[in-house]
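Morning F.,

Quick status update on the modeling queue. The single chain you submitted on Monday has been processed. Sequence for confirmation:
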Amino acid sequence: MKHRFKRSFRIAARSAWLAGELGLALARFATLIAAHAGSPDRAARARWLQRACRRTLRVFHLHPRVTGPVPTSGLLVCNHLSYLDILVLGAITPCVFVSKREVNRWPVFGWFASLAGTLFLRREQRLDVARVTREMRGLLESGALVVLFPEGTTSDGREVLPFKSSLLEPATRQPHALSAGFIEDALNDGDVAEEVCYWKDMTLLPHLVNLFGKRSIDARLCFAELRQASADRKQLARRLRAEVVRLKEVFSL
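Structure tokens below.
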């Protein structure tokens, strides 16, 4: 009974806390708009997102540990477990995410992703890949850090899924930095695959409420730089996946 009360109180308190942080982030974005004459660039949006993510991680009592050189520009590819990945990566370094269009329809989170300058891909439209690729290339040339999840979906984290190569074209034959990242979560009062990872037919609100009831979440991020890109995007996809798998084998919690 005591445990249930503590968990219910934790859920209520963190729900209110998150609402407050989202309100504060919106107020700061309004200030950003005023400071940039109504149109903040993606660099300013990325810095805004970083500050908001850092504060939001505290709501979940999520503690990231980082190994390896944190990328600041170029293309970063990473495995994908949950929407928490965006909070963790966004908190560590200013970046621009590439995401499926469906995320833009998520309540609240989709709106914030749009404000942060996320590139949304309509996966059902082949021609949209060319548009997103052009925008990625422009961001890379401007010195931004672009984050891509080439698995194309989330998983339970037990294995790294095959990487899709369609959005890797900007990284081929280009002088931009190229990094691989591996992210992993740990719970001391639950099952990571079923309670932290967001996959299968899970729905956002019940998953989020359950996370609020957890005492804390530990996250491990490992980064590695790739010295030379491949001229072939499919070969590059295999190489990047192999590097993420290596990081998983070396640094897994």
